[in-house]
Amino acid sequence: MAHLLEVKNLETRFFTEEGTVHAVNGISYTLDEGESLGIVGESGSGKSVGVLSVMRLIPSPPGRITGGEVIFRDRDLVKLSEADMRRVRGSEIAMDFQDPMTSLNPVLTIGLQMTEAMELHLGMTQEQARARAAELLALVGLPNAADRLGDYPHQFSGGQRQRVGIAMALSCNPSILIADEPTTALDVTIQAQIIELVKKLKEKLGMAVIWITHDLGVIAGLVEKVAVMYAGFVVEMAPVKYLYRDTSHPYTLGLLESLPKIDAVTKQRLIPIEGLPPDLLKEPNSCPFAPRCRYAVERCWQENPPLKLVSAHHYSACWRWEAARQDAQQKTKTGAAV
Amino acid sequence: MSQIDGSFGPSALQQNGSANEPLVKVRNLKKYFPIRRGVLQRQVGAVQAVDGVSFDIVKGETLGLVGESGCGKSTAGRAILQLLTPTAGEVFLNGQNLTKMRRTELRKQRRRMQMIFQDPYSSLNPRMTVGNIIGEPLFIHNIGNAASRRERVQELLKLVGLNPYFVNRYPHEFSGGQRQRIGVARALATNPAFIVADEPISALDVSIQAQVVNLLDDLKSELGLTYLFIAHDLSMVRYISDRVAVMYLGRIVELSHRDAIYERPLHPYTQALLSAIPVPDPEKEEKRKRIILEGDVPSPANPPTGCRFHPRCQYATEVCRQEDPEFRNLGTSNMPHMVACHHAEKFL
Predict the structure, then answer these.
(1) What is the least distance, in Å, from the CA of A164 to any CA of chain B?
(2) Using the beta-carbon criterion (under 8 Å), do B206 and A240 form an inter-chain contact?
(3) What global pTM score does this model have?
């Protein structure tokens, strides 16, 4: 079966005065119809640049997609003309940003901003578009939806703005919704509301979702598949249950170990990942995680490990994935015994 | 009617009924910010950011203060350190009343209480070297001479895990985690007894957070520090705190030993807050039941009548709309569990 979206060896660089920033270094993943993918990484891991490249929203200059393909419904988005790309954006692949306040125009009403896209993309009349906008706002759970079309972005709270952002993203029935850290700026109780909402919408509308986050907690109960990014590489990718149980990359393991367990009865000292985040100006020709890795051996400094299949549906880019996995499984076993 | 005031016995607010005097005593602390309107800038209302907060912190203890944005936790931290002048209430450090002090006296006391800020980017002056940033408190408080200050700065850099060789570098040459270490070193310069850490890790990457938390933990046992740890990350708060206070709209709604708060929360808001935390374990996530709170936090300029949580509370009854719940002890005198809810008994 053909995939809905297939990203192959996508590579994005930023050419700056200080040198070339290796933001995304040949990442590959697939997304099927109605599937949900979580992309996890810290700042500078390339998680946002990766999806912005898929949407062709990289500011250029200084950025440029320097290689790879993005196959969406048998078309390579990287080679599409700007006019064709504009038709894909919003109507087929839609994006929801971290704080819609920055992506919404502060001097135009929500109603106007929502209807604009629908009139353009779907050829609706103003009346039809307004009716649909009210319908969408109700769908995302905004109280008194129809009355709020005349309001400006600042009249909404953070959680409500995120709902408006999602409503706008849904306006043209996209087959993929990309959510870039939609809950990072929100409080936990509001975050829980938004997560519930996206889950419900995904089920109802049958769209595929790419959820970008730095929080391994948020996606645990939300997505089917997870890709972990570090220094512009996908270092591990697996179905969500395997990723947390059979962790096969030292970086993923490190992230999990540095989180305190909310249900821990005894206080176990946190194990931080030592060292500093990677310098993206350097050409990556050894494993980017090697300087911070407690499993690192000579080979890690000489050869950058490729992302390869290590067990069913489970990919890891590590020469020593077996050692990491053994420790991870040991940990879940002892954790379960307590 | 009143939530808690000075008449409240100290024992119930303390960790246990032990006789030792708490290091920090906060009594009915209030901080209102005036809302002014019109040409004459007449005051038309007030944002009740902190509205009657009381607790004790004993020496060597870490009290975690959690709540969502706008609940007043940062304002409370600043008002305790007298960085904001409280509208009402009292704060005692080592038995001395900070709110009644003259400026010169207060200044002397500032050595004993310091703050670690949230944003390691905006809280360090970009035009000062690391040495000058860390040495500034020593200079201001006239401690030692130039040579001994230099020595102390080197010592502090080592203490927080930075190379003393970095002393002449500028903040921009450091990563976020390293900058936060510089902020910690500055806070420690005057040998304080009490430190307010205002979301010290929320601006850092996950892999770096644990480094800073471990550092704070080590320093606490090494130097015998007492912390007020303000945060919104509830799993980290459980990890680092001995006791936890939960704030909602300017008030503390629940305060107890960390395990009591997390194992058996008695306030519906605490319950919702805990259930909302995502757990990094798909199998547990599948089984969990979430309490989804409706709506947003009301404005602290116009808080709801009665219990401030009642418009979002699934257990709210008529009494919650009418009467402000008393902040009372439902634990034992040795193991107090303070809660401000009319219906808390049903969760016992």
Answers:
(1) 14
(2) no
(3) 0.84
